[in-house]
Amino acid sequence: MSHITALRRGQRLGTAEVHYTAHPPAVYDRLRGRYADAHTSFARALPATPPVPAPTVGRTHERDVVLSPERPSLWRLRIDVGHRVLFDHPHDHVPGMVLLEAAAQAAQAMMDHPVLAVGFETRFLRYVEFDSPCMVSAELLPADADGRARIAVSASQEERPVFSCTVTVLPRVSCDNRPPVTSVEALPQ
């Protein structure tokens, strides 16, 4: 288990508690089987599907949208391997940060006003592969003890659960009359 605190100029931006297992390369390669080679797996990626309208998921650019429409509260994970931030190098599976981005976007899509994700309780259950559609669903949950809205987001691939997340959100407000950050592009330091 790791405890992580992100600071900027001494001010706390956020915290995380991470539980994970790491495998030696030989075990990982055996575990991943035909998906072990990142270049081969990355090359198997299905073509990117059409995005939902960017404002629906709190983004300003369609290129940053990771959800494709299916029906209310259900989307297909949109994989654009050409996205220079989400896919800065070949991977053997869809990165966890893409699934977290999908959870944040699904949470926004469930709300009738702009929100900011302030908490994620997440479980990565299986690797998400590039060569098969991954479906993302969401449902509103009761508010937490502090009155914050919560959304349950889950993903499945080949009808097996691969990811679950409870996203806690607050209404989005801008500071100093600046527009809120609505892109996953790299920010200047």
Would you write up a description of this structure?
The structure is a single chain. Helix content is 15%, strand content 33%. A six-stranded antiparallel sheet has the order 3-4-6-7-8-5, with helices on one face. The longest helix is centred in the middle third of the chain and has 15 residues, at 96-110. The protein is of the alpha+beta class. A hairpin with a 2-residue loop joins strand 1 and strand 2 (11-18). The model has no long low-confidence stretch (mean pLDDT 92). The protein has helices at 25-32, 38-43, 96-110; strands at residues 2-8, 11-18, 67-71, 74-77, 115-124, 134-141, 149-157, 160-171. It has three helices and eight strands, in the order E-E-H-H-E-E-H-E-E-E-E.
Keywords:
six-stranded antiparallel β-sheet; alpha+beta; 189 residues; 8 strands; 3 helices; 33% strand; two-stranded antiparallel sheet
Write the element-wise H/E pattern from the N-terminal end onward. EEHHEEHEEEE
* Main pleated sheet: 6 strands, antiparallel
Computed over alpha carbons, the radius of gyration is 17 Å
Question: Stretches where pLDDT falls below 50 for ≥5 residues?
Answer: none
Biggest sheet: strands side by side, in what order? 3-4-6-7-8-5
Number of discrete helical segments:
3
| Total number of beta strands | 8
Specify the overall morphology: globular
The CA-CA distance between the termini, in Å, is 29 Å
Report helical residue fraction: 10-25%
Instruction: Classify the beta-strand content into a percent band.
Output: 25-35%
Structural class: alpha+beta
Mean pLDDT: 92
